[in-house]
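Hi D.,

Good news: the full-assembly prediction came through. Inputs first.
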Amino acid sequence: MLAANGMLEDSAVLRVEGLSTKLDGKSIVDSVSFSVNRGEVVGVVGANGSGKTTLMRTVAGLLTANSGEIVIDGTSFGHASGGASRQERSRKVAYMPQLAVSHPFTAFESVLMGRYPHLGRFELEGSGDRDLAWQAMERTSTVEFANRKLDTLSGGERQRVVLARVLVQQADVLLMDEPTASLDLRHQILTMDLVREEVRDRNAAVVVILHDLSLAARFCDRLVVLDGGKKLAEGTPWEVLTPSNLRAAFGVEGLVEPDPVTGKPHVLLLGSDNSSKEDLVGTGRTVHLICGAGSGRELMHQLRVAGYDVTVGVLGIGDSDREAAERLGLNYVAAPPFASITDEQHEAHLELVKAADHVVLCAMAVGLNNVRNVVAATAASNLIMIEPLERVGDLELDVATGVPDFTDGIADELRRGMIEKFGEIPESTLLFELARSRGEDL
Amino acid sequence: MNRIVNVGLGARFVVVVMVTLTAAFVVACGGSESEATSVAVQPTATVQAEVQAESAVTEVSVSSVPVDVTPTTTASVSATQMPVATVRVTPFAVPEVVEVAHAFDKSRFADIPGIIDASNFGWPRSVETSEGVITLDAPPMKIHSLSLGHSEILAAMVDFDRLTAVYSFFVDEEQSNIAELSVDHKMIGFDPEEVVVLEPDVIIASRFTNADTVALMKSAGIPVARTNLENSALGNVPNILLMGYLIGAEAEAIKLADEIQARMQFITDVLASDVHPRVLSVSKWTSAFAAGSGTTEGGIIEQAGGINAAADSGIEGHQQVSIESIAAINPDVIIVPQPLDGANTFIEELTSNPALAEVPAVKNGEVYYVVPKYHTTLSHWNVRGIERLATLLFPSAFSGVTFEGFLNWGE
Amino acid sequence: MATDFGSSVQRVSTGSTVLRRLLIGTLLLGALTVLVTIVAASVGPFSVPFTHTATTLLDLIGIGESTAKPTEQAIIQSIRLPRIFLAFIVGAALGISGGIMQGLFRNSMADPGIIGVSSGGATGAVIAIATGASTVSTFFLPLFAFIGSAVSMAVVFLIASVGGRFSMTTLLLGGIAVSSFLGAITTATIILTDDLNVQRQIIFWIAGGFDTARWESVQIVAPIIVVGALITIFAARDLNLLLIGEDEARALGVRVTLVRNTLLISASLITGAAVAYSGIIAFVGLVVPHVVRLIVGADHRVLLPLSALGGGLFLLVADTAARIVLSPAELRVGVLTALIGAPFFIYLLVHSRARLI
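Then the structure:
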């Protein structure tokens, strides 16, 4: 994509290519690539030690990359030293650190320092610079302590002052390392609103590290998930914030559902694998899952974390759900691969269905081999049906329920009957449904 | 300047008793080893008295003390109700055995402060200095002097070998008048332990000696006399006589005193002039220091017929001055008593500075290097400094006068 | 519509701008310095009628003709003025260098000698005095002192750079260690020397003073200090950014390592030059930047130039007092800086505790 003038032509204002950074010989960031367009907010999420801050400091030019390339607004800042001057870079990239160091300057002086990259060595701040500083302080509501020294302010107040300074720098790319860390809820929202507004008004780009995944999902256009220095996933919040990514990147179980207000993904954290099982909603209750081909995997994890005893219906060898059940040590009925369910297996399955407090039928594809799983579901008195993530369109099959059916409509018919009786719910609300019914029971 | 007065009478009493006991112990050791042991283990009044009596007997042979003389320790001893005086008198019924080697005028010692019994020229004999009373049993053969001035005086009165050791700065040709004598002498450092190891019979301290050093030496059982040194040559005569008495060199002390007095008289006689030039003694050690009132250099200036210009301008002791201060002091003569290297640099600086061009000393070329050893140590050698300075200040009055060397003190 | 965090608050006054503070401060301190210079040139053990001083000073700046006698002119021109200049420029060096060190180390306890420069200077001077080199030429003492400062600074720098990663904490601790070591050498020299005069010289040199000031001294020391001061003032805005954090400074375009090393080295060298010609003068480098910061704030673009002027003025006042209180004898100026400075500083501490925290 090299243009004639040798510059990289790119819609992205920031492009990171195969960036690797080592600290004390230890690899912290390992060939990470991503790009940010103007008008876009990209969140970087990941567990502690996943390399988020190191990645951001490398992009900001505070650390030297061992390999890879950083292209900002068409100018390349390779891993080798040199390249464009620091001041030039500082006009393009602003960096807001995680912790604001305390120092003896007043808040106003501190904000005004954001103008330094735009001033000559002996140039003093003019009234234009001062106006910008005032505006930024008004926007961050830090005007009231403009004359206070920074070391007399609280952590949150200090963070807002630093935010004001970053705004004043008027850079194309804003790198923000947990800008909401010390803020109360209201100021978290206000800060992120400000960031969005800055992106919109100045057509800037923001890369922001956030710990609060829901906040990240709400304000970021795209998310980059880091795990152990590597990029685990990148995409829209809906694409990225999946239970399995949560498990892989953070070691937690979580539900992702639409926020009732914004419609953006809302992450409900259930706990980690080693959470205490006492006092959980599912303690002492059994849920039987009828699933297959990966349709029940997430639920198995989530139900276990919520304290339920989980049993699983007939699963063939090689089925990814069977692997999950095996890993979690669940009680399940096993079948050989690609073989029809035998009478014996079906009997065992019915035992589990009857013993369970709840039976859950997943929206898995059904063939002749496993159609008896759906049959077994009909034996349940308190069935919960999961609606498919995407309704399958009109294929050669009968897909009235939107679930792939390879049984000439047998399964679909059965399913339809059960839907009439029990209804369907989205997968992400299963735990709520179970908890609600538990509440009714009590 | 009696330090002890300052610590109160009670303390003084304790010190006197301690010194008496120490003296008794020393006496006992000198007299008889076995008796010394008994003193150590049974320091009761009775035993003490007996020991003193007996040891006194052993000393009679070398003593020229009249029998009926009561030791000066009486006052303090009776205060502790030790019947020393009585006991002591009895066994002294021995005739004079040995006279001192040569006769001298005993009356010269009559009014010397510190001599407790100016009629006692035998042993033991006692002197009182600011360190209290010490009694020596016999002429001290190992004398340790802690100051250069005292060592110079002692060197003039006794064989230099009786001085136990010298210090490193004694060998400096420009600063010390006994440099040649000191070169081949035993030299020690500043650790008090090195002095104790020498086992001197007596230690002579000066007013500059650290109190702790003196206390350490006293606690090691060595008698310490702290004698003054005066800035004026004549003022030092009593100190010289006291030291002569203490070490049994009375005749030599008188001789030294006589010579000092004679030489000073000569200068006084010659200096009939009413003119007293204002002389500034200044040396430069990184910064310049002027010698004001109460300094050796100042005393020499005054005795040589000059006026100490620094003292005249209100400077007390040695004080830092600037070139401008020298201009303000405006002396007729400037003398620089410091080693020649530094002195030459400084004199060059003084004579070339335009700010001093109008100062009479500079204008008239009266800026002199003077040998520091005559001006900075406190001893009879100051007389030499006075003679030379007087010649410098009053060349016509002293024209044709040649000052003879000191009698037998290595000049 | 811009997001607004809260109720709209009136813009409060944030004091005057950098330029105004700098101008007002410079004018005020400059005027005071001129005034004190006139007083300092008029007083001293040698009494010169004021009209003579005044006409001599005016003559020097090309107005009228001096009515003073040649000696008086010489006193003013070759004794008092070089001393005034030296005291002022050394005070300026210590003030500016103290301000830089306090900024670099983010520590108001830092003084110009913090990385061993003063102790190195003292050791160099002690060597010059003890070996007798100081009596050979008047240039040797300052030369040895300056070499001592430079060597100790280099050693502390090496210590802090071991392992390829520079650490300010190691620099500080290395400075303390090297200072202690050099202090021990100085003390040992004082103790072990036989010559009482040498001991006295060392003690006097360490107490600091300007009694030996000559135009030659000013000619040597002034260029070093002026160049060093200009370099540091050139980097003042970068020092501001360093103070809000190294990362922030880098992100705002500062070449942190270059700026920090330049500041450390120039501050140390101007301290070394000052120490070489004045001995160790306590308190100026510690207190003056502090006081200036209390009054004009922490912006180094204002703080450093005004600390220079304030330090120069303070030391000039102290040295003038040192010359006249015991006249014709004089006090060591290092003694007076602490005698005047400490009570004044305590007064400020007590009256502005809230602002200092």
